[in-house]
Design goal:
The protein has helices at about 115, 260-265; strands at about 10, 15-20, 25-30, 30-35, 40-45, 55, 65-70, 80-90, 90-100, 110, 125, 130, 140-145, 150-155, 160-165, 165-170, 175-180, 190-200, 205-210, 220-225, 240, 245-250, 250-255. It is mainly beta. The protein has 2 domains: about 10-130, Domain of unknown function (DUF427) (Metal Binding Protein, Guanine Nucleotide Exchange Factor, Chain A); about 140-265, Metal Binding Protein, Guanine Nucleotide Exchange Factor, Chain A (Beta Complex), CATH 2.170.150. A hairpin with a 3-residue loop joins strand 18 (about 190-200) and strand 19. The chain is elongated and about 60 Å long.
Amino acid sequence: MPIPGGRSVRTTPEGLLWEPCERRVRGVKGGTTVVDSRHPVLVWEPEGIPVPCYAFPRAEVRTDLLRPAEHPPTGTHTGSRVFYDLEVDGERMANAAWTFPADDLAGHIAFEWFLRRHDGLDHWYDEDEEIFGHPRDPHHRVDALRSSRHVQVEIGGVLVADTRRPVLLFETGLPTRYYLPPEDVRLDLFEATRHTSLCPYKGNARYWSFGGAADVPRNVVWSYPEPLPAVGAIEGRLAFYNEAVDLVVDGERLPRPDTLFSASLRK
């Protein structure tokens, strides 16, 4: 996969993809800096969630805080050779770090992120900007564009939103998301929940569930009250999971897509 500027994504015999990164990356647990790296690499695994992780040269990791894993998992992280528990201020986090089996990545250590398995580091920074959830993929694009399309949303045959002022969000690997002005959504039919999520490209989202009788998943609607600057056009607007509602755009009823969210929405 050639990349402008002469960089390239490399492939290992194990099926891993990896790419050098020029950013300074830091990982913090409590008040302790566990990773401070100027030579990280991004790694994509062939199975699981299709987002990258960082791996760091050992010399840029506080290896004195790592302990051989007491109960290393099997069948995870592409057959990882070694797992480590992380111990900081008397707290031990199981399997928080590991090494990949690939010779290309020998001498590198990867870490779980706290939103992936709830036992990784508390904060991660690209340069001096905090990032959430997982590293940003340099080959992943997100565009938020204002539009005059006519967008209608139905749940169980009930029209719950109708607007001609959407913002369309185009994100690599996902269906178009339609962010609608709150005044064009029947919010009286929804109940705010305590559920939240963090996206490294958009920010911190809050959610609503449908209060009617239709068979629809909880937390089917979300909004970013304070989105990241790159997608500022979606601020305060509401989006629905295309996978779980009926969308009509300019009179055309859209098929429900099958995405990485589909299985969890069916639970």
